[in-house]
Request: fold
Amino acid sequence: MPFTAKDSARCRADFPSLRQTHLGRPLAFLDGPGGSQVPATVLRAMENFYGTCNVNTGGNYPPSREADRRLWEARQSVAAFLGAAGPESISFGQNMTTLCFALANAIGRTLSAGDEVVITELDHEANRGPWLALRERGIVVREIRLLETGELDPNGLAGTINERTRVLAIGASSNALGTVNDLERARRLSAAVGALLIVDAVHYAPHRPVDMQALGADFLLCSAYKFYGPHVGILCSRPGALERLPTERLCTQNPSAPYRIETGTLNHAAIEGVRAAIEYLAGLGRGADPRARLVDAMSGIAEYEHGLASYYHERVSALPGVRVYGPPPEASRRTPTVSVTLSNHDADAVATALGEQGVCVWDGSFYAIRVIEVLGVAARGGLLRTGISLYNTREEIDRLLMGLETLCRAGG
Ligand SMILES: Cc1ncc(COP(=O)(O)O)c(C=O)c1O
Reply:
């Protein structure tokens, strides 16, 4: 079902934070890659959880049973959202970074000195640091090169993976540049040498339907606060994959999936919010079951967001002194995230000036520090990033463009 500007306008009414103003003008939230806004249904679901079943799980009294039921339902919702085999595949955690450290640590314990792990220069540090830390155990970490074009070296994958590779950790798309990676190729090459495929879908999941089973990944990570939910990290595991890992856990902890990597008490109310966020998205699509509705909704949203991003890409490229980074604006090569530099102002000065006008965009490295180093923009404060979400409008993009044009024409 297409998702149109009218649908977007209707959705805006569902997000309380979008009613805020700054100096008399509505705030334009264009920093979805840093964290999206939440619909009121998510807030209500969390409040309802606290108001009804804020008790320990696994108990034999009614509110505890209700908490268990809702948490299981949340796993079912996330499984539908990610195209996972089932709720047993879905583990929750504090955030993606914490889950990725736990995963890398557990996998690291199964490796021997000389084994190799492959990461990329395009990735967020959350999908680099946990793997780089394995070097302390004698694991060799190889990096696929990022090219000036903002895409990974196409020969890098084949050239870096070999018979000693045990893990390929790669992002589905870049939170800094929007680049979409060739995961099908990553799957083929990692499968050919029997390496685990770990996919960071934090930036991808808010913008495209994810199909964990079609992807053939062993593990996929994402974060609900990027797709209209609260701050909760998600690990999706291929059936059987998590059980094989010596995760760090208490002897009292359930050793089966999905609990095997979930240490301590989870943020139950926030997980209920994750369920509500997915229900909200499903409500924007059509289909016979939740998965079909989610795929339909995310496909429509992807097209809408891509239209706005392409409009911005084209207009911003034409401004004097602006350089746009990353691949051309083709839907298969980009998420709706566009990063630029201005020749006459550093990125933080641009973001500050725009912020004063109520236009919220982020500047810097976005924790994708290697990207900033490779592109040689660190000395200019990194990049200015605009991220488009389902609630963003053409008017907001025009406001951003107007602000940028004024800055481009002003001296540095
Ligand atoms: C691509 C990507 N990976 C990983 C992360 C880290 O996620 P979290 O904040 O849940 O640890 C982010 C956060 O911005 C991200 O954009």
About this structure: The longest helix spans residues 290-317. Residues 43-282 form a domain with the Aspartate Aminotransferase; domain 2 fold (CATH 3.40.640.10).
